[in-house]
Amino acid sequence: PAGHDDPKQEQLERWRVAPEDTRLTTDQGIQVDDTDNSLAAGERGPTLMDDFHLREKITHFDHERIPERVVHARGSGAYGHFRLHESLAEYTTAEFLCDTSLTTPVFVRFSTVAGSRGSADTVRDVRGFATKFYTRQGNFDLVGNNMPVFFIQDGIKFPDFVHAVKPEPPNEIPQASSAHDTLWDFVQLQPETMHMMMWLMSDRALPRSYAMMQGFGVHTFRLVNAEGRATFVKFHWRPVLGTHSLAWDETQKIAGKDPDFNRRDLWDRIEAGDHPEFEFGVQLVPAEDEHRFDFDLLDATKIIPEEEVPVRTVGRLVLDRNPDNFFAETEQVAFHIANVVPGIDFTNDPLLQARLFSYLDTQLIRLGGPNFPQIPVNQPVAKVRNHHRDGYHQMTLQQGQASYHKNTLSGGCPAVGGEGSYTHFQERVDGNKIRKRSASFADHYSQARLFWNSMSGWEREHIVGAFRFELGKCERKQVREGVVAQLNHVDHDLAVQVAKGVGVEPPTPGIAEGHGRTSPALSQDRA
Ligand code: HEM
Question: Catalase core domain location, by residue (predicted)?
Answer without folding.
Answer: 25-413
